[in-house]
Task: structure prediction
Amino acid sequence: MRASSDVLSAPLTVNWTLSYRCNFGCRHCYSRDRTEDQLPLEDVSRIVILLAALGVVLINFGGGEPLVYPHLHHVAALASERGLNVSMNSNGYLLDGNETVRLAESGFTSVGISIDSPVASDHDQLRNMTGSFDRAVAALDNLARTGIKSTISCVINRLNLENWEGMVDLCRSHGVSTLYLHNYKCTGDALTNMDDLDLTPMQWRDFYVNALEVQKKVSDVHLSFDDPIMAALEDHRPESAVPGSTCGKLSLHIKPNGDITPCGFIPLSIGNILRDDFNSIWFESPVLMKMREKTPQGKCDGCSCYQSCLGGCTARVWALTGSFDSPDPHCWVAEDSEGE
Result:
């Protein structure tokens, strides 16, 4: 397999949406309006075998809600048998004790539970599901009893901005060692509800400054971030193996019909894993090449932070501007400051 000094021979991680079906209707969902046909199990199994042969390290199942997909355990077991690490992101509602045992038997090594506030009513409101907070917390305990590592994913927004620090205590109380604090992606329903839920650029800056201070004081819970614009903070560079967004560089996304996209938040199909040559997609896709070789525009041109952030979150930039090269609308660096 070909590889250059700048491009891995294959993505380390494939985020795979087996189905967009979900038992929730979250206000910040990226995929609620997507309805691609699902592949038959035979074709899904072929994809697992192909990913293993390519040297992919991790398959992470997303959605939709993965537990709604009827063949999840079969697919996960096949992937595990082929040497792939298997994880998923879930809203936790269906993760009772019996289900977590089935996940362990299927080879899952990690499960991320989405909890967006330490306040039950705020979480339930954002998820449009009464009782979802209690079920998510119970899922953490069920996973712990089964021996599957759990993490918590929290999308920062206006509902949790003032009390997000309570998530650290929630992690500590339920044996969770990693808290993912996600930036707001602005796609799907999240775009529709952006005015109500998204933060201003200065609010994002203040949040990150505060979160990094909290991290310095906490030793038993790791705070993980996925926002490249954090490079604009003085004396800080994001925790990433590559500058800028990792999508299209370290990871790819597969849709239910087998189409490949750079990530789940960028619904641009660049080929189909069953019909097209994967190496041609990975090394020669014009979309991926554009994402890997950005051209700074606007205030990014000449900014001292650019080589670290590469214009911010590619998914958010594309969703709000239609370009890969425009500055991230969340960026707080002034037009005339050049990142100083």
In short: The two ends are 42 Å apart (CA to CA). Residues 120 and 134 are 7 Å apart (CA to CA). The beta strands are 13-17, 58-62, 85-90, 108-114, 149-155, 178-182, 222-225, 251-254, 259-261, 271-272. The longest helix spans residues 201-217.
